[in-house]
Structures are given as C-alpha cells and as structure tokens.
Specification:
single chain; 58 residues; mainly alpha; 69% helix
C-alpha cells in the first residue's frame, strides 16, 4: 500500500482498485502504516513532503 501510494504515486482510488479494497481501507491502513514506520524508522520522516504529511493526516 505504501509503495503504491507514495512510490508509484497512485491515488487512493487507484490503490484501492489495484488492491481490491475500499478507499476507506486505503486511508486507514496508510495512516497506520506511516505511523508504524515513523516509530520504527524515525530517520525516514524527513523524506515525506508537507503535502504527503497533510494527506495522511486527513
């Protein structure tokens, strides 16, 4: 999910379609995954742009 959203630059809808789940699932799982990455690899946080941070916070 993280790869599709941020590396492949797919929209939430495109990611949901690719994974066969709802947009809500993409939003919630992306949020949880990024929080987990921040906890275990804080050195990666500066790699996110402000737009990506705001998008995930929604």
């Amino acid at each position: 999910m993280i790869v599709l959203r941020f590396y492949e630059d797919l929209t939430e809808a495109q990611t949901a379609d690719a994974l066969g789940c709802s947009i809500g699932t993409i939003k919630s799982q992306t949020h949880h995954a990024l929080n987990r990455l921040r906890a275990i690899a804080p050195e990666l946080a500066p790699m996110l742009t402000e737009a990506e941070i705001e998008e995930v916070a929604r």
